[in-house]
Amino acid sequence: MELRDYVDQFPAAGAEMLALHCEGSVEGTEKFARRRNLGFPLGNDGELEVVSHYSVTSTYLIGPDGVIRARRLDRVHDRVSGATILAAVQDLNSEGR
Amino acid sequence: MIIEFGESGVSEQGERPHLVSSQCVTKFRSSFYSRIRCRRRSLYITPYANAGSPSQRVSTPRMSTSNLLRVGLSLALLIVVASTAPAQSRTPAEIERTFVGAAAWQVDEELGKTWQQGLADFPDQNHEPLSKEFSDLTAAFAYGRMVPDDASRLQSVRAFLAAFAPSDTAGISDESVDLLPQVGQKAPDFHIADTDGVQHSLAGYMRDQRALILVFSRAHW
């Protein structure tokens, strides 16, 4: 299952998802989002304004307090699964956030 | 000095070649982070590449001392495989192959002069200093969309570093140093718009008491 298969489960578990394209143009990202109908917000960070403070091909779970609760530094073709992310969100909930 | 490059590869997605080499970059980064940390405990990296498309990067070669000075004590490591073919006639993969990788380290003044002097004798094609600074080499390489990923490039990097890096590395650890935001730390704030024009910020998610899954650059969504 791909990440977008979890777009309903993440909010139900108490987390929003924001995805950022760090390659390609703004227009390319917009075209991609329209074509794929992702179901979650996708932004273009081609200038790396955001990712320069994080890391490319990474996934962060950030709590409502702004503290990083989980982090995955992956390769672009070997990324953390939606199920694993969902489990991390559920763990966050079980900890009482 | 230890320089290791691991597995790497190239995937062409969208309009630009996207070079993929997490392991390579990590090892490359850790070696230099160790070195730099001993000097200042902080590191600012500026890649040498045009911010434009690959064809623009190749067709507008420039590396000036004034730009170096403009970003302060920016220091550089850059490797170029020159090509005389017109940029417009190249595929993204061909363009990528003409690139090696470049980064500049803003460290102390003494080391800065050393590196800057080294740059004067280094090939100056296909590179243009950026005014951006990155706290992470992974991002720096991603910005330039390039990593050293084959033997010839590695050899070039080795040669450059051997010539211009500090010779006294005593006491400098080569252990990996992870300077990325860690679990348990406050996440860096950000502001960015999505493709619908909706503004997103970490502060906004916090204000709304929502947890956030922040995902960068997946091959499959």
Describe this structure in words.
The complex is a heterodimer of chains A (97) and B (221). Chain A has 97 residues and is an alpha+beta fold. Chain A has a single domain (3-90), classed as Glutaredoxin. Chain A is built from 3 helices and 4 strands. Chain A has helices spanning 9-13, 26-36, 82-94; strands spanning 15-21, 42-44, 58-62, 68-73. In chain A, the strands form 2 sheets. In chain A, strands 1-2 form a two-stranded parallel sheet. In chain A, a hairpin with a 5-residue loop joins strand 3 (58-62) and strand 4 (68-73). By secondary structure, chain B is an alpha+beta fold. Helices cover 34% and strands 17% of the residues of chain B. Chain B has 8 helices and 8 strands. Chain B has helices at 22-37, 54-59, 65-70, 92-98, 109-120, 137-144, 151-164, 202-207; strands spanning 9-13, 16-20, 44-46, 77-80, 99-106, 191-193, 199-201, 211-216. In chain B, the strands form 3 sheets. Chain B has a 3-stranded antiparallel sheet with strand order 3-5-4. In chain B, strand 6 and strand 7 (199-201) form a beta hairpin. The longest helix of chain B is centred in the N-terminal third of the chain and has 16 residues, at 22-37. The chains are: A alpha+beta (97), B alpha+beta (221). Chains A and B meet through strand 1, helix 2, strand 2, strand 3 and strand 4 of A and strand 2, helix 1, helix 6, helix 8 and strand 8 of B. Strand 1 (15-21) of chain A pairs parallel with strand 8 of chain B, so a sheet runs across the interface.
